[in-house]
Amino acid sequence: MRAAWYEKQGPPGESLVVGEMPEPNPGAGELRIRVVASGVNPGDVKKRQDTFGVGMPYPRVVPHSDGAGTVDQVGDGVDALWIGKRVWCFGAQSYRPYGTAAELCVVPEGQVSELPADASFEQGALLGIPGLTAHRAIHAGGSVDGRTVLVQGGAGAVGACAVRLARLAGATVIATVQRAGQSETAKEAGAHHVVHSGEKIVEAVTALAPDGVDHIVEVAFAANVAVDEQMLKLGGSIAAYASNAPEATISFWPLVFKNVRVFFLGSDDFPLEAKREAAQDLSTALEQAWVGLPIGARFALEDVAEAHAFIEERRGPGRVVVVF
Q: Are 44 and 126 in contact (CB under 8 A)?
């Protein structure tokens, strides 16, 4: 089968290789997907760059955790009814060496979800990491039904998923965006209100939620935690999945006096039950006519290094997908 891999970390053009590999076979509890689209996430790029100093976890890594395609084989203990189904998967390269940047990918059954009939393989391939992160970020603090949720960065991949999932969960959703052109993305995802981040964000959000917001989904914890505290009501919560800086200074006493809860979220290590619940809700979102995440660029497998460079160099907005 054709696949992309790296056996050393470094720049995409120096580390990524495209060639032939033996076809994998599913083991017990696993199924094999004939991949149509492979989603490329910033996390995939960071693993190849060794951003966090972990090193090579395996001698050879086929990158990309997310993908979509058609099941063509199942292992022992997996219902044969899966064969032929259109599916999307998550975590293919989470604590595993071989991800979805290959014509065939083997994953545990619990990490596979059926793709709604009207959803494209490309959209399915983009759901995993951002969708699961968004779902956890929305629900980490408890039910949001009837509550007000603020999504910082509501036009980004995780942010747009969070807006949609919070809306489906019964929340009133306020999304922040940095640029005027991003407002439509947040609105299409389901935001009731969109405000522009900046100096007057507290005033803008307070005008929409005079008593404060119940929960905040945070993309830039170090930059925004002080402002977040001002917008939260008593007993509110923050779920942070990313930060603009590795270290953050917090105003301890204001957070204490408001009894604020803070959740730090890393998608690889969410409980499997939470991931399965997220997958179900994401598939439901697609079934209910959500168009999904905007695609910024498509690449062939042979151009996988360019796909990684597109993300590294921030060449444009939107998600990146490798299409077979």
A: no
Instruction: Output the DSSP codes for 100-128.
Output: SSBSEEEEEGGGEEEPPTTS-HHHHHTSH
- Cβ atoms of 63 and 99 within 8 Å: the answer is yes
Residue 14's H or E segment, with its range, is helix 12-15
Its pTM stands at 0.93
Nearest CA among 251, 255, 219 for reference residue 237: 255
Q: What is the per-residue pLDDT across 58-87, written as a single tens digit (0 to 9) for each?
A: 999 999 999 999 999 999 999 999 999 999
**β-pair partners for 39:** 66, 321
CATH code assigned to 2-127+293-323: 3.90.180.10
Q: What is the DSSP letter of 303?
A: G
Kindly state the tokens that stand for 106: 């083997």
Q: Enumerate the domain spans of the chain.
A: 2-127+293-323, 133-268
Write b or e for each residue in 226-240: b if 16 or more Cβ atoms lie within 10 A of its Cβ, otherwise e. Answer: ebbbebbbeebbbbb
Please say if the pLDDT value at position 89 is more than 90: yes
**289 pLDDT exceeds 90?**
no
Fold match between domain 2-127+293-323 and domain 133-268: yes
pLDDT digits (tens, 9 = 90+) for 101-156: 999 999 999 999 999 999 999 999 999 999 999 999 999 999 999 999 999 999 99
Find the helix or strand (DSSP H, E) in which 193 lies.
strand 193-196
CA distance 107 to 100: 9
Residue closest to 115 by CA, chosen among 101, 125, 105, 100: 125
- Rounded CA gap, 67 and 89, in Å? 6
Q: What one-letter code names the amino acid at 233?
A: K
pLDDT at 47: 96
CATH number for the domain whose boundaries are 133-268: 3.90.180.10
